[in-house]
Amino acid sequence: MRFDKAAMVLDLARRMAASAEGLTLEDMMRETDSARRTAERLRDAVLVLFPQTEEVSDPPYKRWRIRGGLSAFEQAPTAEELVELSKAAQGLRATGEPSRANSLEGLERKLKSAVRSTTLNRLAPDLEALVRAETLAVQAGPRASADEVVLAEVRRAVLAGQPLGFIYSRPGAEARRRVMTPCGLMFGRANYLVAAEPDGGAIKTFRLDRMSAVKAEPGVATPPADFDLQVFAGQSFGIYQDAIEDVVLKITPEGAPEARGWRWHPTQDVEDQPDGSVVVRFRASGMRELAWHLFTWGEQVEIIQPARLKAVMAGELQAAQRALERSQA
């Protein structure tokens, strides 16, 4: 118990040192998952152990921060943390993301170079053992293959609040020059720019690998005031955004155990049925991507609603049947 409390105090100190504006008491309660009185005791312990902690007035709140960071001793990473960082970089490189992989590998080198040699020598055997014992499974799917120049230019426009100009090419459509208000980036099976039409227009997504001649344009471009990238991303089953619909799926008793442990969507509700099956409900867009996923469940899933998902699934089945017939001809 004493060890756990000490770890919580040190973790809170790290969070204070990592926040430029500092943490309010409410922030501490949320980040330590504790009641107000517990958060107050942890804060007081940090104040005793780290006298350099500053109290900042931010009416109606107070904030606490540790400027100048913590010492290398207090910040030494664990073998598990270094392995996770290394694996994350490997995963990005394996999926065609060399620029983002380079950033993580650079961070890994900086962390190791900041650690005392004695600590690094102590971590080395565990680190080597974990690296040998863990690997990443390569999954089928499109490679993101983000051009680091494109990615850098998009980020530059986002940070500067400038319009972003680019040529967008889609299969079967004529390439078109666009000037959009960049709102953010979504990384997944493919990487997407999320952008708004000029003058507060519709929010749209653009695959980075289909963009060329990308350049931040002169002027000011501010995302809509009510736009939230996390909320926007959470609306879709995958990446593609269209009409949001109520989805209801019924999973057979054979597939129920896996369905209960599956993360279908942030809005999901999983309800057990008397016959051992489960009903999954959520609100989402992206029916085509959902239909592709449902193929992996075979006969274990029944689409209750919406009707459009049933129609999309039927269309995908017909397309697959035609492709199969051509291969057998």
Q: In short, what is this structure?
A:
The protein is 45% helix and 20% strand.
Shape: globular
Q: Please tally the β strands and state the result.
A: 11
Record the strand order, biggest sheet: 6-5-4-3-7
Regarding quaternary structure, what we see is single chain
Overall average residue pLDDT: 83
Largest sheet: 5 strands, antiparallel
Helix percentage range = 40-55%
| Number of helical segments with 4 or more residues | 12
Description:
By secondary structure, the chain is α+β, with helices and mostly antiparallel strands. The chain has helices at residues 2-18, 25-32, 36-49, 72-75, 79-94, 98-114, 117-133, 148-160, 229-234, 256-260, 287-295, 307-328, and strands at residues 54-58, 61-65, 164-168, 176-186, 192-196, 203-207, 211-216, 245-251, 269-272, 278-284, 301-305. It has a 5-stranded antiparallel beta sheet with strand order 6-5-4-3-7, with helices on one face. The model has no long low-confidence stretch (mean pLDDT 83).
